Protein: RebB family R body protein
Organism: Chryseobacterium herbae
Amino acid sequence: MATVNEQITDAVTQSNVKVVGESPAMALSNVYQTAAHSTGIMFENAVNTQNQQNIVTQAATTQGIAQIYSKDTIADAISIANILKP
């Protein structure tokens, strides 16, 4: 049975220890990156929702004002029609 040089076994052992030692830091950095990405998407969705709500609010305001202005016009038209009836 052939023996392996101690320098080779030490190098492999040190590489394995380095990988195992860095694993928690890599895992935590992945967690932080995922959390940052999720937070960014959350803010994007919040801004989009706010923009959509502003559009709906402006449309509702425009319709309300149009109805307010049209009520007097309809009332005037009915009054004039009643006056002009024989």
User: Anything to note?
Assistant: The CA atoms of residues 80 and 86 lie 12 Å apart.
